[in-house]
Predict the structure.
Amino acid sequence: MSTQARSPRVAVVGAGSLIGEAVIAELRARGFAASSLHALDEMRDLRRLSMGEGEEIVVGDVEAFDFAGADLVFFCSRPALAERHAATAAAHAWVIDGTSAHRARPEVPLVVAEVNPQALDAVGDRGLVALPSSASVALTTALAPLASKAGLERVDVATYHAVSGGGRGAVDGLAAETIGLLGGRAVGKPRFGEQIAFNLIPAVGEIGEDGCSAEERRIAAESARVLGLPDLAIAVSSVRVPVFFGHGLAVHAQFARPLEVAAAAEILRRSSGVFLVEPNARSPGPTPVAATLAPERVYIGRLRRDPSRERSLNFWVVADNVRRSAAHNAVSVAQILVNTGR
């Protein structure tokens, strides 16, 4: 987009998905100055989006859209759509790809707005930007301010993925399973291969020959890249839990230099994008429910010294995976691109 065009023409591909709807809502909540908004999706997912107060947005067919008519394109759809259309769109516009289609390409910037916005310096007036997975966004947003103070040597993290990471069908599936089981009915074909209601599934994504799941490998690679620490030792275990929205992460971080709990707490209190939840008699720390009620931040709690390792802290992280880690990050990246006047 030229530096003179201050109100970009915006397209949202996958507008009917949970993240697509959240991106549109985030654009509106921030008063993003778009001269036009094109809501797009596959033919099978065409629908009308209710925006409240009687307003609806009609979703159009992405296959019929001319990307020369857009300056800023969000991909919130299946990776296959981004693989098919992102390169075409990037010839005319900034493309912010929230799918997994381009995350592993080293020549494509992988960006968390609060952590490594400098990665956007390589982007001109058009081009492709990839966004990490929701768990990676939450993890790096929490780690970055601490790493900048004390360095970072190793991270062990267990992630607890809400079902909404699997899309609208997964949310509906958990609801149906829960209602059915409470009513004494058998569970139909499970969305995640096994019953998820009242259950835990100890893997997210396909498990490879090394015993690691696709999501575990993705979080490790994305987090090291976003933090600018390619040699960071990071071990990930991912679990699918019967929660609708809000990923949780139990983090164990070892630093290069000593970092006391009080100093770490003060750093987090001063950092943008995160909120340190102080323990109290009513609650030991943030929960997915609380995070979805106020999804504008990544929440950190249970901050404490790790007695088993030197220079180490343990803490708990929660973020709304759809609205905070996905939609908020996507629109924040867009605002950086637009506001820097490139």
